[in-house]
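To whoever is covering the structure queue this week,

Two jobs came back overnight. Logging them here so there's a record in the thread.

Job A:
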Amino acid sequence: MKPMYRDCFPPFLQPGERLITASDYCHNAALPLVPAELCTPRAPSALEQRVRGALGNALGRVTKPLGPAVNSRLANNPVTRAVSGLAGNGATRTGGGEGGTGTTYAAGDFGGYSARRPDRDLTDAVFEIQENIEDAAHGAVESMMYGKPMEGGWSSMAGRFLVDLKNAGDEPRFQALTDRRLIVLVDRNKSWLDGTPKCDFGVAVPRANIARITAHPKAATKGRFDVAFVDGSWIALGSLHRENMEGIVAAWNQGF
């Protein structure tokens, strides 16, 4: 267990709780998107406000009401046609399993909204289109190579784990197994100059709620492992380094 992983967790341990092993956290891009109605609204950071303000000022000068000629050029643009095509072909991403909840997303939905809003801020649309396309591409590759990443609906233990992690905000960065819990921390650092993590609590699951932790059989070159819960649901977690994953699985199997 590297010091950079270990030293992040003491502030988040309960009195008397013992850290067993810790590692980096690698998010599985194939995990289903959390429905918008389950997401807690997040206030934009100071950096996001500055970036959006600068973009808004610049874009505001060039996004006047479009004339017929400009509208025609946009409609015939290859990128516009591609995005429109994606919007017309929603892909269902489901938590899987009996009772699993399927939710349909299209590129035009912008992360769960049922219709496009004419007054949507253009910078929000740009960010969300880019994120949705990247997530869909990464998720398709992950699912094709390594199989299903989750079992259970949003009310299952696996579903609630993913919802809570999403609502924690920011990027999951570290994970640990203690004698009481499985814990994931998020990184609040927004600085481009200083990469030192600013860890905060993400989500935790009592060990009593976990049935088993196993290495994924197809993850020969990656650190994916599957956490199965006592209600029958499960979720794929992982590390960038296979040896870190093996440390977590071994600690669980040895009963530490």
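Job B:
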Amino acid sequence: MNDFPFSENDSIYEILPIYKEYAYDTTQEIAYTAKYVATTEMLKKISVGTHLFSLSKPRELPNTKLPLHLLKEEIYQIIYTKRTGYLGYLEELLNVPFVLSPEFLTEFGHQTDLRVTTDCAELAIYGKRREGLKVPYCGPRGIVKYLSKTDVVKKGIILHFGHQVSVLYEDRGIPNAIDGEDLLIHAYELKAEIIPLKETNLYNTPYIIYQWKQ
């Protein structure tokens, strides 16, 4: 946050995606809304993840699949994380809408690289791409090619439920075991988020544990 582009005396507007009750698909555009917020209050309450802010009240926010911060010069994309390494990079996608499936935009690049949309596998892959690995975005089936099975329970392992890919963010319950108290970071239902396994409908669903190939 050291390069935050606003002063503490500025009045700014937070640009918020309007999450649907089901996953977007690539034929749908994302709607946004603007909310006034004082900079000092925002800095106290800002959550980890990607945020959009504007110095002026937007006259119009288009429904779009394109990156707003590249379409409109008055809109800034702010990324706030607390961790370093793989999990820190995954934190960058928090708050980003869940889309089936993110796509490559000819003029700008991949929606997930741009932190505009993500899905479950693309979130897991994003962190590795940010680490410099040349892993393509390839969905829940394709990601397995870049993984190997493991019995070791540690932060950053992949829980593959078949249709859903989640990353272990924190082993909070029984040490060295997967249980309902453990925190997952994943894109599922509305957006990318950190959530206890027990609070998802993945709880008690069979899974395979993977780690990234070296």
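Note for Job B: DSSP finds five helices and 14 strands in the chain.

Please reply-all if you pick these up so we don't duplicate work.
Q.
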